[in-house]
Amino acid sequence: MSAQLAAGTYRCRDVAQSVAAALSAGVTWVDMAPNYAFDTAESSLRPLLGACPHVRVSTKVGFVPDSDRRAARAAGVLPYDHNRGHCLTRPYIAWQVARSRARLGRVPDLVFVHNPEHGRPDRTGLLRMLTEAFEELEGVADAGEIGGYGVATWVGLSNGMFTVPELTALAKSVGGPHHHFRAVQFPVSLVHLAVVADALEGRGSLAEAHETGLDVFASAPLGGGELPGAMTEELVRSIDAAASPAQAALLVALSAPGVSQVLLSASTPAHWADARGAAAREPLSPDRLRRVIDVLGT
Hints:
- This protein is α/β, with parallel strands linked by helices.
- Helix content is about 45%, strand content about 15%.
- The chain contains 13 helices and 8 strands.
- It has helices at about 15-25, 40-50, 65-75, 90-105, 125-140, 165-175, 195-200, 205-210, 225-230, 235-240, 245-255, 270-280, 285-295; strands spanning about 5, 30, 55-60, 110-115, 150, 180-185, 215-220, 260-265.
- α11 crosses α12 (about 270-280).
- The longest helix is centred in the middle third of the chain and has 20 residues, at about 125-140.
- The model has no long low-confidence stretch (mean pLDDT about 95).
- InterPro entries: AKR2_Oxidoreductase (IPR053135), NAD(P)_OxRdtase_dom_sf (IPR036812), NADP_OxRdtase_dom (IPR023210).
């Protein structure tokens, strides 16, 4: 099954406008976090999502929104000496997930543990923290308050701080064979080609996620918006000579083995129309992906 486009909301200037354009383009998944859009992403999207019950929603827990810090401390879920801006204790997770659910006006389909590598804990401490987070999220999922959970990371997988098999084993140890661990989210793009190269050889995070039945949400497919302007004619031709620079860059993420959703933070109908053009193309073959990797190296 080919990867699908999904609406990402990181760094969107106007989240409601961007997601409205995405929904008009036929997107059926929206990803956000409580701290996106100056802490307003969830609440600003409630009217749109309320009118689109078929659209699935993922949010995150980990980074403490500035606007929530005082309330979290008053609720006793965030220690007063906690100044790192990131928290994955069980009390805070339960509190923040309930707050997200109220702001969204619905049960999130997924809640991602957001950048657990933040603060660079040692591996032992990191796995202990993830165990506590998974325990809480399993309980919340059992209660029907979320559909499932995952891990969204920037460098945790690429730096070997944890692996997909370790995360899956942890979920099984906490939740048993019917655990609610469903997905991982990490960068897949022309900037992060090593993960694609590994997948073509049947190894690495993409291959491991596919083997364990996890959905993969590819983040930053356009390199934070920098890739379209950096695409050379040679690189575009090596991908698809008939594609626009943005389409060519998106095609790599859309074609990467094991990717389920490609998170795009596009702001206008024109951007989404261009993205739909990429999604409508035939995925790049493994041989074509290898040629792209040969052009750029990894």
